[in-house]
Automatic annotation (TrEMBL):
Pfam family, one: Redoxin
Boundaries of every Thioredoxin domain copy: 2-168
Chemical reaction(s) catalysed: a hydroperoxide + 2 glutathione = an alcohol + glutathione disulfide + H2O
Keywords noted in UniProt: Antioxidant, Oxidoreductase, Peroxidase, Redox-active center
EC number: 1.11.1.27
Protein's name in the database: Glutathione-dependent peroxiredoxin
Length: 171
């Protein structure tokens, strides 16, 4: 499992882009993780699935509500990562009103989840291999804080916890 001090694994995440620009076409666009995190502080949170109860009612809304405070604490971007395709993540982002606040990053094949070692096997519930629920602060591609939830829990990966850690990191 990835640890504080480790570099994020190399790979690609996908984001559904609503408006063409900055080299991005409308629809799913690939983003190289190393390039996208270079020189930035990223508040990254991951969850088991789009449109699921805790994720939709608590996890994403908390980060949308705290987006300005996280930026004031030195965070350049907020990423929500889930094992869903970019179309689903785009639709969920529209429903959750994340535009300009949280980037909805798709890990459709669970490659990123596997590479971090933060997977959750929900095959018995018909959901297959998913990401565990967690949050982390990433500075220039290196994990500075990591908050991994226990099974079925939502206690340490929330926006308020990561905001407190971002403020502490900023000093």
């Amino acid at each position: 499992m990835i640890q504080v001090g480790d570099k994020l694994p190399a790979g690609t995440l996908f984001e559904f882009v609503e408006v063409e620009g900055e080299g991005c076409s409308i629809g799913p666009n690939p983003f190289d993780i190393a390039k996208a995190t270079a020189g930035k502080t990223i508040a990254l949170f991951a969850l088991p699935g789009a449109f699921t109860p805790t994720c939709s009612a608590k996890h994403v809304p908390g980060y949308v509500e705290q987006a300005d405070a996280l930026r004031a604490a030195g965070v350049d971007e907020i990423w929500c990562v889930s094992v869903n395709d970019a179309f689903v993540m785009g639709a969920w982002g529209r429903e959750q009103q994340t535009a300009g606040k949280v980037r909805m990053m798709a890990d459709g094949s669970a490659d990123f989840a596997r590479a971090t070692g933060l997977t959750l096997d929900l095959a018995a519930r018909g959901l297959g291999l998913r990401s565990n629920r967690y949050s982390m602060l990433v500075v220039d591609g290196v994990v500075k804080t990591l908050n991994v939830e226990g099974p079925g829990k939502f206690e340490v990966s929330d926006a308020a916890t990561l905001l407190a850690q971002a403020r502490q990191l900023k000093g």
